[in-house]
Amino acid sequence: MNASDNVADRITAGRAVYARNLGVPEDEAESMLAARAGAQYAREALLAAGGPGWSGTELTDRDRSVAVIAALVGQHVADARLITYLNAARAAGVTEEGLAELMVLLTAYLGQPAASVAMATVLSTAPLAVRPGASPSSISDPTDPA
Known about the structure:
By secondary structure, the protein is mostly helical. 70% of the residues lie in helices and 0% in strands.
C-alpha cells in the first residue's frame, strides 16, 4: 500500500464515519461537511475521522459520542455541531436520562454556564415524546386542525 492509497482509504473511512454521525448517505457526507466548514477543512476532518479515533476498535460509537459531547460542551458549543453528536449518542444507545446525567457530571467539571446551555440543547432536540412536560395527552397531532 502506498501513501496515496492510505490517504484515500482514510478519506473513505472518514466519509463513512461522518455519514453515520450526520445521519446522511455516504455520498452526501463530504459535501455537507464542506458546506458547513469549507472544502479544505472537510478533507482534513475526513482524514482524521478515518484514523484510529473514530475507526479504532477500543472505543464504541457511544464512547466516542460522549467524549465529543464533553469536548464541545467544554468549549461552550451548543449549535449544530453539538446537536450532531447528541443525535449520534442517541443512535448509539444513550438515553435522554443519560444525556441529562452527562450534563450534571459536566457541570461539576466545566461549570454551570457551559453545561446549562448544553442541557437546553439536549432538551430542545429530545424526541417530542420525552420532552419535559410532554405527555401523550399534551402532544398534539400537527395535522389535526383542532
